[in-house]
Amino acid sequence: MFSNFDELAAGGVIGFREALEAALIISILVALLQRTDRGAMVRWVWAGVAAALVASVATWKAFFLLTGEFSKYNEELFEGILYLFAAALITTVVLHIFGHDTRRMLERKAEAAIARREALGIGLLAFVSVWREGVETVIFLGAGTQSSDAIIGALVGIVLACGLGWLIFSSTRKIDLRLLFDGSTVFLVLFAAFLVSKAMHEFGEIGLLPESALLSGAAVLAYFGIAHVVSSRYGISLVQAFTNLLRDLTPGKNGA
């Protein structure tokens, strides 16, 4: 049915994680407004979300128009730079996750806007927060792959994340999402390593880096202290390794 399950899975994980973060941002803002008797300002949250969705689609179109134009001059160089930029962005995201309490930071900004009775400020906060997730999704998908399978996977992941976000918001019980976020963070680290290896390959193709067995046959991926050697002759990719690991850890799927 799908020509490349790896790209479908990668797109799904990226779309799910980024959309889930956006859904949690919305739920935090709406819950805070309702808790402080500012329910009338909720419509500004949804206005910001709608604007962010439009801006994300525009970003997607602009991204592929620009990458298409730049790649005409030196495709390998441009793709190598794009891979490194995406890996650096992922690094920033992961470090931010471990170094900041995003929920509390968002609540403080919202509380400040509420104290000033700035409905527009609430809408702008929702717009910027959700659009940031959209931009990250565009860059991660655009750098990793541009196949239809990855896009389909991302759309499925986004739909699932929206459903989970609605469940979290409507549920009276607290749902622990640490396992989901920890697992997707591990994937992001591996995906960043994969992008670094692709960048090294592209730079090697145009002579910026010396061609060697490590660059042409197996990529040594040193990232966040992880040394991972992947040999192309065995047809193994990071996404395959990650999905195989999840399959092995899932009860009832490993023959136990």
Automatic annotation (TrEMBL):
Entry GO terms, CC: high-affinity iron permease complex
Pfam families found in the cross-reference section: FTR1 (PF03239)
InterPro entries for this protein: FTR1/Fip1/EfeU
Key words of the record: Membrane, Transmembrane, Transmembrane helix
Transmembrane segments: 12-33, 45-68, 80-98, 119-144, 150-169, 181-200, 212-230
Name the record gives this protein: Putative iron permease FTR1 family protein
Subcellular localization(s) per the UniProt record: Membrane
UniProt topology in membrane: Multi-pass membrane protein
Source organism of this protein record: uncultured marine microorganism HF4000_ANIW137J11
Family: Belongs to the oxidase-dependent Fe transporter (OFeT) (TC 9.A.10.1) family.
Molecular functions per Gene Ontology: ferrous iron transmembrane transporter activity
